[in-house]
Amino acid sequence: MSELTQSKAWLALLKHYDEIKLVHMRELFDQSDNRFARYSLQLNDILYDYSKNRINDETVELLLQLANDVELPLWIEKMFSGEPINHTEHRAVLHTALRDQRDQPLIVDGIDILPEIREERKRVKQLAEKIRTRKWRGATNQAITDVVNIGIGGSHLGPLMVTEALRPHTLHDLNMHFVSNVDENHINDTLEYLNPETTFFIIASKTFTTQDTMVNAETARQWYINKLGSEECIERHFSAVTSNVTLAKDFGIAENNIFKIWDWVGGRYSLWSSIGLSIVIAIGAEQFDELLAGAYEVDQHFRHAPLEKNIPVLMALLGIWYNNFFEAQSMAVLPYDQHLHRFPAYLQQADMESNGKYVDRQGHEVDYTTGPVVFGEIGIAGQHAFFQLLHQGTKMVPADILAPVYDFRCIVKHHRALMSNVFAQTEALMRGKTEQEVYQELKAEGLDEIQIKQLMPYKVFLGNRPTSTLLFDTLDAKTLGSIIALYEHKIFVQGVIWNINSFDQWGVELGKQLAKNIAHELNDEKLVKSHDCSTNGLINHYKRQRSKKTCKK
Ligand code: G6Q
């Protein structure tokens, strides 16, 4: 039995769960008029409403007790001060340093890391500004019109999500492209309409060894050489973001165009670093600073607000409540702002790669469940797709709803329609629809008693389905920075409570290692027998079929 499941707070929560599990949120709302005031918090432009959750004061008190029992405040300090809490990789976890706005040194391994961070950011901004202002010229003295970020996972999802989210702040004559899939279609579909004379590549790879990225990077370089007929001036068209400067130079990238990241920045937490080069090119230095400022404000809140008023802490505790006590297996993230359309994919990595672990910090298998399956989609699209399961399925899927008070163009007709859905959905998920309500509704539609009786079971909604709502004024860079940081810290808190290392990713490393081995076996037509019979069968079928067609190298 783990310490966690034997802790006083955990046992008390189990008992409390038995008492509250059948209580309907309708009752909780009926009991108190100030439930919204009690269970909502405001941080700058963001309102966090967690009142539509299956909690009462005792739940919150016990969950906070759990956070205190695992010494959460101490862990928060450990992270911010650069202790090597990523113990399996012997690394500090310092994405917060990348947005630190203070004038105080931050010493890691005897060195103040802030000056180097700021110096590197200056270089990133200089390059970005040259490209944005058309001062950066390609091999044939033309300005850049297209930027292609080649990277995957943490070197892709964050920059893509932010660039899409802040689309209104991007330049109309500078197109951003993001290539991640090693499937040739991704890079070739992207390059098909581009002009090498006006295209600039960013090879974003912390290790500079990731197969997918390196194969795509090689294809891009070859495309450039083929089209322009020589390797000359390649430095005008290629840059790299990496911690492996040597490999980037070997690839042929000029030292001036190589931007550093450090091993204390995890890939999925790296959009704040030079990995954000594509973001800075897309939105400009000022907006990027706003993004950092928004995240910094949340960092300050997370570090200093008392746990009971701390938004990421409460978000995390609610997740624990559903995951470990209600045994919910998943959580949905449902942005209603179209510009956040890549946010679910981004969060999926941030959360599942961080907390999808079954071994605790002491190397033991845990006896409780950890990270949920995170999924999501633009809320409106989800309503016409999987919301059916959220309303009437047999599984509880706690959901986060994110919505803006006003959107970029502030068009009333659209926004009113959008927001009526936001409010209606959270209300419906909470309240459901009783037999009596269904009866009245069907009666008003003119159905007779027999028809009503037949339809009744299908039209009843049990409700009591939890949602939390983040309502923000508008999706500007600062607010986006804050939203991302809220989720980063939520994930961290859950990792602390589950006693797992949220900052390594051995599952990802496994994929990289396995693919490398099998790639060798695909070099020739010899049939293989080194795997299980299914894998052998699949590889050999592939080889036989492939040999019937002549393909390019
Ligand atoms: C993120 C992971 C992983 C990583 C990619 C790309 O936290 O480590 O998603 O970002 O595998 O790695 P490189 O940046 O090294 O190419």
Please outline the major beta sheet.
6 strands, mixed
Which radius of gyration do the C-alpha atoms yield?
26 Å
Q: What portion of the residues fall into strands of 2 or more residues?
A: 5-15%
Small-molecule binders here are: glucose-6-phosphate
Widest sheet, order of strands: 1-2-13-12-10-11
Span from first to last CA?
55 Å
Proportion in helices: 40-55%
Number of helices: 23
Question: How is this fold's topology laid out?
Answer:
Elements lengths: L2 H4 L1 H13 L4 H7 L3 H4 L1 E4 L2 E4 L7 H13 L2 H9 L26 E2 L2 E2 L1 H19 L13 E5 L6 H9 L9 E5 L4 H8 L7 E6 L6 H18 L9 E5 L2 H7 L6 E3 L16 H7 L1 H20 L6 H15 L4 E6 L7 H13 L17 E4 L2 H5 L3 H6 L6 E6 L7 H20 L3 H10 L4 H11 L7 E6 L4 H22 L7 H16 L11 H15 L6
Parallel strand pairs: 5-6, 5-7, 7-8, 8-9, 10-11, 10-12, 12-13
Antiparallel strand pairs: 1-2, 2-13, 3-4
Helix pairs in contact: 2-5, 5-14, 7-12, 8-12, 8-15, 12-13, 13-21, 14-21, 15-21, 19-20
Question: Short summary of the structure?
Answer:
By secondary structure, this protein is of the alpha/beta class. It is built from 23 helices and 13 strands.
Characterization of the model:
The chain has 23 helices and 13 strands. The protein is of the alpha/beta class. Strands 1-2-13-12-10-11 form a six-stranded mixed sheet, with helices on both faces. A five-stranded parallel sheet has the order 6-5-7-8-9, sandwiched between helices. Strands 3-4 form a two-stranded antiparallel sheet. Helix 8 packs antiparallel against helix 15 (343-355), helix 15 (343-355) runs parallel beside helix 21 and helix 19 (435-444) packs across helix 20 (449-459). The mean pLDDT is 96. Glucose-6-phosphate binds at residues 152-155, 205-207, 210, 213, 266-268, 353, 505, 508.
